[in-house]
Amino acid sequence: MNTADLFLILRRRDDKRASCRGRFIVSFRYLINTLIVITCFLAVCFDLFKDDLNLKPINISKAAKIQTTDSQINKEIRLIDWLNAKSAKYAKYKINYPNDGIVHAKGFTPVYKGAVRVNILEISQTINPNLVIKPMVASKYLNSRVKIRQIAQKNNSIAAINGGYFKPQTGVPLGALIIDNEVYTGPIYNRAAIGINSDGTYSIGKTNFKFFLKNRKYNLKIDNINQPRMLSTYTLLYTERWGLNSPPPPKYGLNAVIKDGKVLGFYNASVQIPNNGYVISAPKKALLGLNGQKNLKLDIIYPDEFKESVHVISGGPYLVKDGEIYIDTKEEKLQAINGANPRTLIGYTKDNDFIMVTVDGRESHSVGMNLYEAAKFMKSLGCINAINLDGGSSSVMYLNGKITNTPPQDGGIPISGALTVGLNSAFANEQASF
């Protein structure tokens, strides 16, 4: 029985005997830990004075044991304090603790037109540094869609929610997605994103990444990476993540194949994307001067907010910015999604807890949230920054092998990717099955 299990016994108000038993067990554990510390301390003292005050060096292993035991007690105390805080915060919900540092709360919350069913995950990497939060895609190639259960179980995830927007016909993510410092896709309409940083913190900002293909003498601006063509004038770069073959070039354009920093050829049709290489698809005039170039490298300029980010996941629009409700649907070209709908929301608190939420909708007893209601709700959970992810039929939450919300389609629709929560050991070889 772990600390979280004991804590659940403590908070069961309908079972006084269980509560008393839980308090006894927790108190007994602390008593035992305290006795261990005292015993180890006395053992060290005995080593010091047992030969008629003939001093001896302190037994380092025993001293280390005292420190380790004390550290474990402090860690458990911090966990109990965190559990107490989350129990109070989510008092009106049914709660459970899937792992140290994770609380799951489920229940109803009122909105203007009725009530909605919400599922909330709050994750603390401070309490449990072994927790890993990162985006995952459906397959090695971006033009894939599978159900969230398949994504989560392939990577032994504890929990997962659906990710950002994607093209329904193909599954290609529509917006910036970076996983383990690799740019899977570039931004769309400079929409909002959240970064998961190397030091365990989070950041929020607009995705105005800049891309250049360059060497010492040549510099070609790249408009986007692994995104469907929006304008015939764009210069696009396609990596192996896109698929086996590139899209065809624009009218009066060419596809340039590049590998090991060298241009291998120009083609006026779809072409195979080389291993460890890429294809530049652009109007002919944009490629003037590219032929014969060597030592070409892709240069990426990150916005300040994401310079330390290992992972970046975009959605949009903003919901909370710097502690205040902030919804920029017009700037992010998302006016069409403002109505009451199922939602997937992410954000983080001033205490560096990460929050994931799904909101059920399109039901008589769970009407969904509009963006203002979603923003207000995320702020009420303590988020200082939050964004909206893909919603509607895509909204789904997975936890310990089960779908915890009620998506319109059983198990959720096939999606292009997910934002997952797991443990360090479970994520070591996440790409091995690709």
Largest sheet: 8 strands, antiparallel
Q: What radius of gyration results from the CA coordinates?
A: 26 Å
- Mean pLDDT comes to 87
| Annotation, overall tally of beta strands | 26
What percent of residues are in strands? 25-35%
Helix content: 10-25%
Number of folding domains?
A: 3
Gap from first CA to last CA: 37 Å
Number of helices: 5
Q: Which stretches are low in confidence, meaning pLDDT under 50 for 5 or more residues running?
A: 13-26, 426-434
* Biggest sheet: strand arrangement: 1-2-3-22-21-23-19-20
Shape: globular
Which structural class best describes the helix and strand composition? alpha+beta
Strand-helix topology:
Elements: H1 3-10, H2 16-49, H3 60-89, E1 94-99, E2 102-111, E3 114-124, E4 131-137, H4 148-154, E5 159-162, E6 177-179, E7 182-185, E8 192-197, E9 202-206, E10 210-214, E11 219-222, E12 224-225, E13 236-238, E14 253-259, E15 262-267, E16 277-283, E17 297-301, E18 309-314, E19 318-321, E20 324-325, E21 343-349, E22 353-359, H5 371-380, E23 383-388, E24 397-399, E25 402-403, E26 417-423
Parallel strand pairs: 12-13
Antiparallel strand pairs: 1-2, 2-3, 3-22, 4-26, 5-24, 5-26, 6-7, 6-18, 8-9, 8-18, 10-11, 10-17, 13-16, 14-15, 14-16, 19-20, 19-23, 21-22, 21-23, 24-25
Q: Can you characterise this structure?
A:
The protein is an alpha+beta fold and 434 residues long. It has three domains: 87 residues; 226 residues, no CATH class; 92 residues, no CATH class. Helix content is 21%, strand content 32%. It has five helices and 26 strands. The protein has an eight-stranded antiparallel sheet. It has a five-stranded antiparallel sheet with strand order 4-26-5-24-25, covered by helices on one side. It has a five-stranded antiparallel sheet with strand order 7-6-18-8-9, with no helix packed on it. Helix 1 packs across helix 2 and helix 2 runs antiparallel to helix 3.
